[in-house]
Amino acid sequence: MNIKDYVERVNRAVEYIRNKIPEVPKIAIVLGSGLGGIAESVENPISISYKDIPGFPVSTAPGHKGELVFGKLYDKFVVLMNGRFHYYEGYSMKEVTFPIRVFQLLGVEVLIVTNAAGGTNLDFEVGVPMIITDHINLMGDNPLIGPNVDEWGPRFPDMSEAYDKDLIKLAKTVAKELGIKVYEGVYVGLAGPNLETAAEYRMLRRIGGDAVGMSTVPEVIVAKHGGLKVLGISAITDLGDPDNLKPLTAEEVLENAERAGKTMVKIISEVVRNL
Ligand code: HPA
To answer: Taking the complete model, does pTM exceed 0.90, yes or no?
Structure first.
């Protein structure tokens, strides 16, 4: 991949989108599995399909939406990313994070990322959201590898506060006010697509992970590189107990993601309202 071509593609996508929206969103929300519900709360939505945006990667996964939805959520103009690109689908890290660069250059200042994740902290209960306090990148790749685009961010971006402390505090406060139980913890990103072995779950717990998944980390790295503030929330869909590991079905993951998703929608809506 040539970085000049990539920059040019991002700029073309930004230009196209700018001409379709009435104002610049300050908040972008990446919808993970089971989180599609938020899209229905957006007023006067303007949906733009990925395939219509020049330069934008195109989703291949069947049943996955591939659109940006612009509109008002609690009087705040936001953009929702409905359908993300996963590394395990074969996209490069640069493609996975393309939409985040587009958000940055549009003028987005806050990124809210959601995902479905397996709990490695065995005190967790499935169907409960976890506010991400930090992450560990075990994906074996990084979206910032290669020539640095200095206008986009620094060569060696600081990650001392990858997940914004004030946003974490706000999310916890609104969850408490809503009477919603949430956990806090460290998200470990793996490439996937296979789920973890018992030995891997054991290791992930030992290194300080509370949850594990196959997304989010690259998007957060690029968002931080670009100077955005980040809030991340995981839906805990299953528990990886190394001493009692049972086969996990995709249905189980989706069902629990939707359950957690219902409460995550409420938390995110309140966070947006208070931003
Ligand atoms: N591991 C990785 N990704 C996941 C899991 C898991 O256990 N559950 C949901 N997504």
So the answer is: yes
